[in-house]
Design goal:
The chain has one domain. Helices cover about 75% and strands about 0% of the residues.
Length: about 260
């Protein structure tokens, strides 16, 4: 076993588990960290790590997901509407925008935008709507915020929860709708990438045991970070993460600008 490769995987899995749910952008952190570590085939690794954090959503929200086929089935069309922008915008970017999505410099600028969004929404009054009461127009608006989060450095959880709060959802409902939306998007993106990996000629550089360790770690860390986010959101402390995102964005921009002149 390549111990350096294992060490990189453990570090990436921990970061993915933390950043997927805390509103600091997992894609941005993985792009920046993977570039700094010099990880090869980062996109392949990212697929596995996202499957781990998807498992964390399924564990925490399994009762809500189960209710979708019963008492909450009228929420399903709203989730479909909210998923449309991610498919319409995300698929072309995934296919043709590999260089854009792998840009640490872009992630740096987007970290700052994520921080600004978190500060703005923390100053808005808290709504009282439940996610079952969302209009289709508002569902679509939240969906566009999710599509925007395909850019590295834009937090999916941060933007979708913020959009939910903006349209009047309660904190709990904004988080619930955000993570219910995430299930088809993450699962669909993971499936497409898995098919792409299976269909290509060259083998995956990262051994399966190391990928498996990454999957388990991202799942376990993701469970913890999701519970932390929900507790901080209930306390109205989401803006705290802006004080990580904005300095990090400035640091990454400085790093990549300096590196471009070397």
């Amino acid at each position: 076993m390549d111990w350096n490769q294992l060490g990189d995987m453990i570090l990436l899995a921990i970061v993915q588990g933390i950043a997927e749910f805390l509103p600091i952008s997992s894609s941005g952190h993985i792009v920046v960290l993977g570039t700094w570590l010099g990880v090869k085939e980062l996109d392949d690794v990212n697929v596995i790590l996202h499957m781990g954090t998807l498992g964390a959503i399924l564990v925490i929200y399994w009762t809500k997901l189960w209710q979708l086929i019963g008492e909450d089935r009228e929420t399903i069309p709203r989730l479909i509407v909210a998923t449309i922008p991610a498919v319409a915008i995300g698929l072309p970017l995934e296919k043709f925008g590999d260089e854009i999505l792998a840009s640490p410099l872009l992630a740096g600028f987007m970290f700052i935008i994520t921080g600004a969004i978190l500060i703005y929404i923390s100053r808005r009054p808290v709504g009282k709507l439940e996610y079952q009461q969302l209009s289709y127009r508002h569902s679509l608006l939240i969906g566009f915020s999710q599509a925007f989060a395909v850019l590295p450095g834009i937090s999916r959880s941060g933007t979708t929860i913020s959009a939910g709060l903006q349209v009047g959802l309660s904190r709990e409902s904004a988080a619930t709708f955000s993570f219910l939306m995430a299930v088809p998007v993450i699962a669909g993106a993971g499936l497409l990438k898995a098919i792409k990996l299976i269909g290509r000629e060259q083998a995956i550089a990262t051994p399966m045991p190391i990928l498996g360790i990454g999957l388990v770690i991202s799942f376990l860390v993701g469970l913890g970070s999701l519970l932390v986010l929900l507790r901080l959101l209930q306390r109205g402390r989401i803006a705290l993460f802006a004080y990580w995102c904005i300095p990090l964005g400035i640091l990454v921009i400085t790093w990549r600008t300096y590196a471009s002149y070397q």
